[in-house]
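## retry 2 of 3
previous attempt timed out at serialization; input unchanged, resubmitting
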Amino acid sequence: MPRTALIVIDMLNTYAHEDAEALVPSVREALPGIATLLRNARAGDPPVIYVNDNFGEWRSHHGEIVSTALDGRHRDLVEPVVPDENSLFVVKARHSIFFETPLAYLLGQLKTERLVLCGQVTEQCVLYSALDAHIRHFDVVVAADAVAHIDAGLARAALRMMRTNMSATICPADEIAIDARRRE
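## retry succeeded, writing output
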């Protein structure tokens, strides 16, 4: 099995933005799938990499981003996905996890060939990240029940695009092999 990394996208969120009301119910639905992926990854040895918006606070580091999210309007959505001491962290400023971040370099250092994506927002950051992963020749897997959306119709279309245009594997979190002990 190729070297896999679990990428958790933008789950450390204050939910103090204009789309939060539409996003929150979907995040609640995605949390069990994300928790499954985290549990499976942490039981093995693949890296868990959080790639998160810094909310325009360029002096912040990952600890501050976690703390700010926990102090936000929906602590209950953040607590289940807080990074552990072994998690890696990359700060991003735009939609794609790769855009002007050191993620590609980090994945190269880890000899990663396959990315399992989860988090938010399916029709935005997850979609653009899957495309950027695909053009960098990573195998892409998206846990359909571990991604949250703002617009359900656009999210369904985004998942279809990832499957069709990017050859991504789209399946439930509990069917995704995170380490060599599990098989897809």
